[in-house]
Write a structure and sequence with these properties.
461 residues, Neuraminidase, 2 domains, 5-stranded mixed beta sheet, 2 helices, globular
Length: 461
C-alpha cells in the first residue's frame, strides 16, 4: 500500500488535509436513479457514448446518451452470491470492444464464494444486450471469509487486463496472504487475455514470471482490499486500498512493488498487527502517495480517477477519490488533500464516460451522478441579527443556497456557540446558543459567520 516518497513528501500527503468543506467547486447532477445497489459505472470506448452500470446482485445495465432509464445488458444473478462485500464487483471492456465485442466481469461465485474473472461477448458490439455464454478466465479460492474480495478490473495502456484481489478477509490477514507471493490473494494481477489457445497467459515482463518464488500473474503485492483503481493519462495505476481500523490509502503501483499490508496500514505500522517488528525495515515496502486517518466519519476509501475531462469540471490532472462512509469527495493536487464536496452518499465507485467526465455511484441510494462545475454560489441568511436578554438562549438561522453550494458556520466570540449545522450544502439550518451574561458593560455584541454572511447578536442586561 505504499509508494516511496521523502519524509517531507509523506508528511504533506498525510497532514495537509482540509477537514471541512470550502465553498463548493463542484456539484452532482443525477443521471440515473432507482438502481439496485450499484457498484460501478463505466463506458465501452466504442464511440456510442453509452454508460454501463454494474448492480451488485449480478445485473449490468446500459444507459443510452441523453436517457435516464437504463435497460438490462447482462443478467448473471444465478451465478453469483451477493450481499455485504460479495456480488458482481467489476467490469472492463476490451480495448477493441467496438470490433470484437469482448468484455470481462469479476464476481463472487454462488456456492463457495470463489473469485471469478469471466469473459462475455456482445454481437454485434453495438448491441444493447450481451450474449449469456461464459468463458471463465481465472478462478481464485476465497472460502475462509466473505469480505475483502477486491473486484476491480481495468485494461492498462499496453492492453493487458489488471485485477485487484483482496487479502481473503478477516482482521490482520492472519494467514499473511498479502505477503505470500505464491498466492493470488492481496495482489494486483496482470494477465494477457489475447493469448491464442488459452484463456489467458502471464505477460513475460511480469515481475515474478518464471521465478522460483512468486506466481506469474502477480504484478504487485501487499494489498489489503484494492477495491477501486484506474489508469491516468500517462499509464500510472492509482489504487485505493481500503484500510482496517486506522488509515485509508491511495497507491501508485509499480511492477513488483510490495505495498506493505499486513505490516503497514497506510503510512503507519499496523496497530496491534502481528508483524510490528518488521516495521523497523521500512525500505522493504512502498508507501502511499496519500493516506488519511479514520476521523470525521471516514472509514473506507473509494479510489477514483485523475481528471482529464473535456468539459473542465475540474482542474486537469487532479486525482478525485472519496470515502464510502463520510460521503466526502476528495481532491489530490500532488501536494494536498482537500474536500471538494461533502455529500450524504455511500460512494461505492467513481467512473468515466468516453469524454473522461467523472461520475459518482451511490450504493444505498441507487443513483449515478455526473460531477459538474458548480455555478457561482450565492447565499442568504434569515434572520441576519437577533437580540437576547442576560439569560441567553438558543436560536436558528436559515441558509438559502443552491444545491451543491457548500457552507460553514463559525462563531467569532466565545459566548456564542454553533450547536448544529457547522457545515452543509444547499438549503439548511444553523442552530446556536447564547451564554448567560453577568459581566459589564450593559451590552455586548458578537457575530457568527454563516455561509460567508455575518449574523449579529446583541445581548443586554
Amino acid at each position: 500500500m505504499r509508494i516511496v516518497y521523502s519524509g517531507l513528501g509523506l508528511l504533506a500527503a498525510t497532514l495537509l488535509f482540509v477537514a471541512t468543506p470550502a465553498i463548493a467547486q463542484i456539484q452532482l447532477s443525477t443521471v440515473v436513479s432507482g438502481l439496485a445497489s450499484p457498484l460501478f459505472v463505466g463506458n465501452a470506448g466504442d464511440n456510442l457514448n453509452r454508460l454501463f452500470i454494474v448492480e451488485q446482485a449480478g445485473v449490468i445495465k446500459v444507459l443510452q446518451p441523453g436517457e435516464s432509464t437504463p435497460t438490462d445488458f447482462l443478467d448473471i444473478r444465478t451465478k453469483i452470491v451477493s450481499g455485504g462485500e460479495q456480488g458482481l464487483l467489476g467490469l472492463a471492456f476490451h480495448p477493441l470492444y467496438s470490433t470484437n465485442g469482448r468484455f470481462f466481469v469479476y464476481y463472487t461465485r454462488l456456492g463457495d464464494g470463489a473469485l471469478v474473472i469471466a469473459e462475455y461477448r456482445a454481437s454485434p458490439a453495438s448491441s444493447n444486450m450481451a450474449g449469456t455464454a461464459e468463458t471463465v478466465i481465472l478462478t481464485i479460492p476465497h472460502a475462509a471469509n466473505t469480505n475483502h474480495n477486491g473486484g476491480m478490473l481495468a485494461f492498462g495502456p499496453e492492453g493487458y487486463l489488471y485485477a485487484g484481489v483482496g487479502d481473503g478477509g478477516g482482521a490482520n490477514d492472519l494467514p499473511n496472504n498479502a505477503q505470500n507471493k505464491n498466492l493470488l490473494l492481496g495482489k494486483i494481477l496482470r494477465i494477457d487475455i489475447n493469448a491464442p489457445g488459452v484463456p489467458y497467459a502471464a505477460p513475460p515482463d511480469n515481475p515474478f514470471f518464471g521465478a522460483p518464488e512468486g506466481l506469474d500473474e502477480i504484478y504487485a503485492y501487499g494489498m489489503r482490499n484494492p477495491w477501486r483503481f484506474s489508469f491516468d493519462g500517462f499509464g500510472q495505476l492509482w489504487v485505493g486500498d481500503v484500510g482496517q481500523g486506522a488509515r485509508e490509502e491511495v497507491d501508485i503501483i509499480v511492477s513488483g512493488g510490495n505495498y506493505g499490508w499486513r505490516v503497514f496500514e497506510g503510512s503507519i505500522c499496523t496497530p496491534n498487527g502481528p508483524d510490528s517488528a518488521l516495521c523497523n525495515n521500512p525500505n522493504d515496502y512502498l508507501f502511499p502517495v496519500l493516506d488519511y486517518a479514520h476521523s470525521n466519519g471516514r472509514c473506507s476509501v473509494t479510489g477514483g480517477y485523475v481528471y482529464r475531462g473535456s468539459q473542465g469540471a475540474l482542474s486537469s490532472g487532479t486525482y478525485i477519490y472519496g470515502d464510502y462512509c463520510s460521503g466526502e469527495i476528495f481532491a489530490w493536487d500532488g501536494a494536498t488533500q482537500s474536500v471538494l464536496l461533502d455529500t450524504a452518499l455511500n460512494i461505492s465507485s467513481f467512473g468515466e464516460d468516453e469524454q473522461r467526465e467523472l461520475y459518482v455511484v451511490h450504493l444505498i441510494g441507487g443513483t449515478v451522478s455526473r460531477i459538474v462545475r458548480s455555478p457561482a454560489c450565492t447565499y442568504s441568511i434569515a434572520p441576519a441579527r437577533a437580540t437576547y436578554g442576560p439569560g441567553g438562549g438558543t436560536g436558528t438561522v436559515a441558509i438559502t443556497a443552491d444545491g451543491g453550494c457548500a457552507w460553514t458556520a463559525t462563531s467569532n466570540v466565545s459566548w456564542l456557540t454553533v450547536t448544529g449545522g457547522a457545515s452543509g450544502s444547499g438549503n439548511g439550518p444553523v442552530t446556536y446558543s447564547v451564554a448567560v451574561y453577568t459581566g459589564r458593560p450593559k451590552n455586548r455584541n458578537g457575530t457568527i459567520t454563516i455561509a460567508g454572511q455575518t449574523f449579529s447578536v446583541k445581548q443586554s442586561k
